[in-house]
Design brief:
Helix 4 runs antiparallel to helix 8 and helix 13 packs across helix 14. This protein starts with a strand and ends in a 10-residue tail after the last strand. The protein is an alpha/beta fold. The protein has a seven-stranded mixed sheet, with helices on one face. The chain has a six-stranded parallel sheet with strand order 13-12-14-11-15-18, with helices on both faces. It has a five-stranded mixed sheet with strand order 1-2-3-4-5. It folds into two domains: 198 residues, Metallo-beta-lactamase, Chain A (4-Layer Sandwich), CATH 3.60.15; 183 residues, Rossmann fold, CATH 3.40.50.
């Protein structure tokens, strides 16, 4: 289950961290239409970890249902939201029309939402009132992604006991109270460093509570040092077969990482010059946003850009914006590379290429991102011989490859390291393991408890806790 959404009540302040769309199955999508379990009009702030739809997709519905507070996100996240949400609205309107019900929200709700978003810098202290503060740390997941730290003041009581020689019990002598700063960290989605573009994930700076994602809580990625070589190998094998390499890719981060890697491979003549198509209007717009925010890049990428290398462009690359340009890809003989959305084959232009090339034994489909259970991508990835696409039964005869080391998510090892990375003198009181499939979340919670000696649980939707 996706759709991150956490309510934190600190004194009189009500804060949401993320408000995402549920994705992956018909049941998950139906949940998006259910009323919120709180009154949106009573929410004071929303803190957005990053711009993936499963973290921001229901924000327009939140506005539609009465929210008029402030929304904070990094400047890069805000710019990505301006592109992602209108695109998502088109999909929502299309789904609503096909199924004969009103859309989840409308264009005016997206416009209202964006008017409430304030772009902030990493590590900027945000005063939310009533002694509550927030700080955004670098998650290294996608451009502008954040780990959200929330601080508040809590009363701690200390009692001093007097031992009496004439009594078998201790009597209370004095008591004292003081305000202590308490901290909770919301991981959002954690990155998988080292990445081709972004800085490493920030560590925890003392924490009383931690909310950590668990998309890969039950597995480890491939060795990262070999991922560019493995990408080159998959490309070479497809080229030698004179096939088509299809890459279902997320418009944010994965497409830009692939462009960076392909640029390097072509520049160093590691692979032959073949046509490369970015067949995703959304990914093209997102790439333009990436170019506007080099402050989020790591030192290597900044150096390449300053040396004159356009890391998101190279000879043979074609950005296909219009439907007509997309159809013309069919006229280009293989070998060729097609990178198209959506990343889980949940919709978008990749579906048309899959209908055409999944039956071709010379071609390859390459997964470079997480495929949620129930998605078309997961069905292909796990070896289904036939799949349904746009009402058609399509045989899967092509080669199926996965490069999990390109995942933008930390794996089990990375998640454990992050939870253990804090500089606190004592361990956090509790870790909440969220955002993963049930088995992944439970596995990670058990590992945190057994390996780190920290109380860790995998809560269910609707659970509440007193901190």
């Amino acid at each position: 289950m996706t759709g991150a959404n956490y309510l934190l009540e600190a004194g009189a302040v009500k804060i949401l961290v993320d408000c995402g769309l549920n994705q992956g199955s018909k049941y998950a999508e139906d949940l998006n239409y259910q009323p919120f379990e709180y009154n949106p009009a009573e929410i004071d702030y929303v803190l957005v970890t990053h711009s993936h739809i499963d973290h921001i997709g229901r924000l327009p519905k939140l506005c539609k249902d009465g929210f008029r507070g402030k929304i904070y996100a990094t400047k890069a996240t805000r710019d990505l939201m301006e592109v992602a949400l209108p695109d998502n609205l088109k999909l929502i309107q299309q789904e609503a029309e096909e199924n004969g019900h009103p859309p989840l929200f409308e264009e005016k709700d997206v416009e209202e939402l964006m008017s409430l978003v304030r772009g902030i810098d990493y590590y900027e202290e945000i005063n939310l009132g009533d002694g509550v503060k927030a700080i955004f740390h670098d998650a290294g997941h996608i451009l502008g992604s954040s780990i959200v730290e929330v601080q508040w003041k809590a009363v701690s009581s200390f009692q001093f006991l007097d031992s009496s020689k004439n009594s078998d019990f201790q009597s209370l002598k004095t008591s004292n109270q003081k305000l202590e700063t308490r901290k909770i960290y919301f991981s959002g989605d954690l990155g998988n460093p080292p990445t081709p573009l972004l800085r490493p994930t920030d560590s925890i700076e003392e924490a009383d509570y931690v909310v950590v994602e668990s998309a890969y809580g039950d597995r480890a990625h491939e060795e990262q040092s070999q991922r560019r070589e493995r990408l080159a190998k998959v490309i070479m094998e497809t080229v030698e077969r004179k096939g088509v390499l299809m890459v279902p890719s997320f418009a944010i981060e994965r497409t830009q990482e692939l462009l960076f890697e392909l640029n390097e491979l072509f520049n160093n003549k590691r692979i032959p010059q073949v046509p490369v198509f970015i067949d995703s209007p959304l990914a093209i717009k997102m790439t333009a946003v990436y170019k506007r925010h080099p402050e989020c890049f790591n030192k290597e990428t900044v150096y390449l850009i300053k040396s004159g290398d356009d890391v998101f462009d190279f000879p043979g690359l074609k950005m296909t914006v219009t439907v007509e340009e997309s159809k013309m890809i069919n006229d280009v003989p293989p070998p060729k590379i097609i990178i198209a959305g959506s990343g889980m084959s949940h919709g978008g232009r990749i579906l048309h290429h899959e209908i055409r090339y999944l039956p071709d034994p010379k071609s390859t489909i390459l997964f470079v991102g997480y495929q949620v259970d129930g998605s078309l991508g997961r069905q292909i990835q796990k070896g289904e011989k036939e799949v349904k696409i746009l009402g058609q039964t399509v045989p899967v005869n092509c080669h199926v490859e996965t490069l999990s080391s390109y995942s933008a998510h930390a794996d089990q090892i990375g998640l454990l390291k992050w939870v253990a990375s804090s500089k606190y003198d004592s361990k956090p009181e509790k870790v909440f393991v969220v955002q993963g499939e049930e088995e992944a979340a439970k596995t990670l919670a058990n590992l945190i408890h057994d390996n780190l000696g920290i109380n860790a649980i995998a809560p269910q939707a609707g659970d509440s806790f007193e901190l």
